[in-house]
Design brief:
The structure is a homodimer of 226-residue chains. With 226 residues, chain A is mostly helical. Chain A has two domains: 63 residues, Orthogonal Bundle (Arc Repressor Mutant, subunit A); 137 residues, GntR ligand-binding domain-like (Four Helix Bundle (Hemerythrin (Met), subunit A), Up-down Bundle). Chain A contains nine helices and three strands; from the N terminus they run H-E-H-H-E-E-H-H-H-H-H-H. Chain A has a three-stranded antiparallel sheet with strand order 1-3-2. In chain A, strand 2 and strand 3 form a beta hairpin. The first copy, chain A, starts with 15 loop residues before the first helix and ends in a 7-residue tail after the last helix. Chains A and B meet through helix 3, helix 4 and helix 7 of A and helix 3, helix 4 and helix 7 of B. The structure holds a DNA duplex (30 and 30 nucleotides). Chains A, B: It comes from Kribbella rubisoli. Chains A, B: Keywords: DNA-binding, Transcription, Transcription regulation. Chains A, B: One of its GO terms (molecular function) is DNA binding. Chains A, B: InterPro entries: GntR_C (IPR011711), TF_FadR/GntR_C (IPR008920), Tscrpt_reg_HTH_GntR (IPR000524), WH-like_DNA-bd_sf (IPR036388), WH_DNA-bd_sf (IPR036390). Chains A, B: This is GntR family transcriptional regulator.
Chain lengths: 226, 226
DNA sequence: CAATGACTTACTGTTTACAATCTACAGAGA
DNA sequence: TCTCTGTAGATTGTAAACAGTAAGTCATTG
């Protein structure tokens, strides 16, 4: 028997549609398109050297993630970020991450917390480097661990469906409040310690506080109401 | 200017893919397929007189709703219901419905509660008729009202993604515990009264109790672990 | 001058055809 | 008899062609 660790990475076991989804998501969250911009299937297909099939698949996925809006016979348009979006994403995230954390805190054991500590260690060093992109990546990595250990496929799927928008928010936060990079470590360290208690209720309270803090900061951003 | 209330419902503004999704979902939740059955795109396309495009779209949607499992180059297979599925759906539903209820209870005003009371009234009459299918429909209708008034597009989307499986559970419950048809009214009436307090915390507690009760009953079903 | 209606254009929704990939089974070798 | 390998068959992934629809434009009419 060959151990799982050495199975060939299989260059691409995922379909083209999934690849295109990732590429477009990265372009959108990276700000390559203007809000409201019309994404035409044929243009995207030509640009990415694939046919319209995978493009359509990707666009429907991205619609579910809130990155684009699809209007029948009109096409896909880049969503404009509104106060409503910020509120919805944060309240929904709070709801599912509380559930995720209450389950994860009793399942992470030593190995899960070791992963968290590794991320926290990097967060500390970010304070000196101050690369906003690293801060975003580490923030997401930290929370990914919670979702990974909650052992709940459906919660994980919901998280994946809002993760991209959370990325957008984090980048916007770093752009508007560059000083936040300094407090990232302490806030996540606090959350880690709450989880380490192994008490589901304490874990939920920790998440509540954490998400609420993130929401309060973002509310200061000047966004259209809807 | 014509008020929004009277705009024509637009007979069928939805695409073929959406229609196929609904048809297949109804067939699956209605038990037309055996668990594990292999759904072949070409067969479905021939049977429904459409091409494979809309079929593919429908199958990916149904995968997201947990009704089928898609394995690359193998096709779509009807999901077998497991204890894990029951647990995941109920815990996730609890999380989002608490959020939905806490928002809805302050937004339903008179009109929302009137809708609920109309459903409750029918539930009472069901007790005499005892048509299990009506019981399922009314149960869903009741909760749909909560989601409709919570004014949260993303929560609504998550609900829609698990609503089909909840339907399956309700039907299974009615099949295994036919006597439950009698308590459906009182349980929902209790929940309605909790929402009517207009207190978000009370609303959440009401949902917690309601969902937990549903979960406890379903746990008695004899299902495979995974 | 405003409003309506036909026409044009460009896009998406759908169908059809082709290519890549996987599974299953049979046969050869140990 | 068991295992491995090669081939055949079937099914999905992908591409391209076709058809239908909505928005925009411009002429026409009240």
């Amino acid at each position: 028997m060959i151990p799982d660790d050495v199975v060939s990475p299989l260059p691409s076991q995922r379909g083209l549609g999934d690849l295109v989804t990732d590429v477009l998501r990265e372009m959108i969250t990276g700000g390559k398109f203007q809000p409201g911009q019309h994404l035409k299937e044929t243009e995207l297909a030509d640009a990415l050297k694939v046919s319209r099939g995978p493009i359509r698949q990707a666009l429907t996925r991205l619609e579910e993630e809130g990155h684009v809006e699809i209007r029948r016979h009109r096409g896909a348009f880049i969503s404009t970020l509104t106060k409503t979006d910020v509120e919805e994403v944060h309240t929904l995230r709070g709801a599912i991450e509380k559930l995720a954390a209450s389950r994860a805190c009793t399942r992470m054991q030593g190995v899960g917390f070791a992963e968290m500590d590794a991320v926290l260690e990097q967060m500390k060093s970010v304070d000196t480097k101050i690369d906003p992109e690293d801060a975003v990546r580490l923030d997401l990595q930290f929370h990914d661990i919670i979702y990974a250990y909650c052992d709940h496929a459906r919660v994980l799927r919901v998280w994946e469906s809002i993760r991209g928008q959370v990325t957008v928010f984090l980048r916007a936060r770093n752009a508007s409040f560059p000083d936040f990079l300094d407090v990232g470590y302490s806030e996540h360290k606090e959350l880690r310690d709450a989880l380490a208690l192994g008490d589901p209720q304490a874990a939920q309270d920790g998440i509540d506080k954490h998400i609420l803090g993130a929401y309060e900061r973002l509310k200061r951003l000047n966004l259209p109401d809807r």
